[in-house]
Amino acid sequence: MELLYLSCNDFSGEIPAEISSLCLLLRLDISNNNIRGPIPTQLAKLTHLLTLRLQNNALSDHVPDLSASLLNLTVLNVTNNELCRHIPDSMLTKFGNVSFSGNHALCGSTPLPKCSETEPDTETTTIPKCSWRVQLRHTI
């Protein structure tokens, strides 16, 4: 599978880590749902990914640094979520601050607010897990 568009489906729960097994995926769009929890670091396994659209959900926690693993990624949109803490400089440089707008608790390099020196980098949040059920049909 190369394209997975699940936008505007009213999905809830977390992004399942198993999505990283779709190793040939080029475009992933799960925007405009009610997805909660962190952005899984396992997305770094999707090394062919060109587009990652996660905007308009309720994603929380930090933005993982995917730039070193996802060298082909040209479009990233995580706007309008509940992301917080420091945006890795490499992500900010590659995608620009517009890719992260609408996440009022993010901080980093200018033009973002400076991060607090007392901000813990290892803060964790427990969020209930929820399984997604998606049935894909392929007809010839």
> Which structural class fits the helix and strand makeup?
mainly beta
**Contiguous runs where pLDDT drops below 50 for at least 5 residues:** 120-140
CA-based shape: globular
Number of discrete domains = 1
Please identify the top-level CATH class: Alpha Beta
Please provide the count of β strands: 9
Q: Kindly report the CATH topology.
A: Leucine-rich repeat, LRR (right-handed beta-alpha superhelix)
Global mean pLDDT: 86
The CATH homologous superfamily is named Ribonuclease Inhibitor
Q: Number of helical segments?
A: 1
Strand line-up in the sheet with most strands: 2-4-6-8-9
Structure description:
InterPro entries: Leu-rich_rpt, LRR_dom_sf, PRK1-6/SRF4-like. With 140 residues, this protein is mostly beta strands. The protein contains 1 helix and 9 strands, in the order ββββββββαβ.
Summarize the structure.
The protein has 140 residues and is mostly beta strands. The chain has a single domain (3-107), classed as Ribonuclease Inhibitor (Leucine-rich repeat, LRR (right-handed beta-alpha superhelix)), CATH 3.80.10.
Keywords:
single chain; 140 residues; mainly beta; Leucine-rich repeat, LRR (right-handed beta-alpha superhelix); five-stranded parallel β-sheet; four-stranded parallel β-sheet; 1 helix; 5% helix; globular; disordered C terminus; PRK1-6/SRF4-like
